[in-house]
Amino acid sequence: MGTRERLVQTMSDLLWERGYADTSPREVRERSGVGQGSQYHHFASKRDLALAALRHNVDDVLPAADSLSGPGSPLARIEAYLLRPRDALRGCKVGRMTQDPQVREDPELLAVVSSAFTAMHTQWAHALTEAVTAGELRSDIDPEQVAHTLMAVLQGGYVLAMAQGDPAPFEQARQGALSLLRAAAPQTPESLTK
Amino acid sequence: MGTRERLVQTMSDLLWERGYADTSPREVRERSGVGQGSQYHHFASKRDLALAALRHNVDDVLPAADSLSGPGSPLARIEAYLLRPRDALRGCKVGRMTQDPQVREDPELLAVVSSAFTAMHTQWAHALTEAVTAGELRSDIDPEQVAHTLMAVLQGGYVLAMAQGDPAPFEQARQGALSLLRAAAPQTPESLTK
């Protein structure tokens, strides 16, 4: 790995672990083993390095959402993506950035976060629309709204898990979302007799 | 307001706005107008002040959840609390603390956050249990799980709103949760013909 890549990877890790405000250029140097002259040769500021690192984290996270598209049952894809193994106590590399006022106040940094969330929402909403069309979800379910609901369950589940230092609330939150989603399947007279 | 209260109130505001890592004792002094000697007379460290301020924020937030208890339809109480006016772009005073590694790594600070979330969960789960008992929600809905789901929708909705600099995703997330909750009402053969 070249020096530039080492700096970006280290900053990506530190943004995830500690956030932006709490990460100093010195910590990046110490962990990456890159010297100060070399660091500033590649990145004029902590903020420039953070921009590259944040883009790197988005590129790392977004492709997984491709599994929301594809053949077969849309609801099965939605359920599989919702229940995908996730490290609840580490949280979301991209979502945690929103909690950093220095990121929120920097239009260029925030734009990376917001476009990642928009791309995720498009994927979720598309799969939910397919599920409604396929008759797997009731027709009064709004895919745009429920896409935000399910994204919020994951992002908020991390908050609950971190608050307790325990992944259980995250798991419960998404199991509860799954049970609500299943309750939103169209009911037939036959299904009532079960 | 006395000096001590002024320090606590100012730190409470700064914890909400900027978090723990990004708030310096100097900022607290500048905003509160309290001098350095007086600050250290009341609080030996930034961390001691943060502990008092975090407790203050919990005391400020928790009483609202009392509206989950009371007379009348449990589901109506749940819906009202879910849809209660909230400033999505400011987020949750208590939940945002989980994003600060310095808080997560401090057992005493984290204990304040985790006990607040436990208290909230108890209130949600109690109301959801009442809704199941009253026949307003299907009997296969797990109140403990769905309590975490609805808490996550709110906490995660703030993340989505902050990512876009727009309260709309928060509103959509909770409207979507509401529609799923309504879909989890027991269906009668009569309701199918509607």
TrEMBL record, chains A, B:
Keywords: DNA-binding, Transcription, Transcription regulation. One of its GO terms (molecular function) is DNA binding. Residues 24-43 bind DNA. Residues 1-61 form the HTH tetR-type domain. This is TetR family transcriptional regulator.
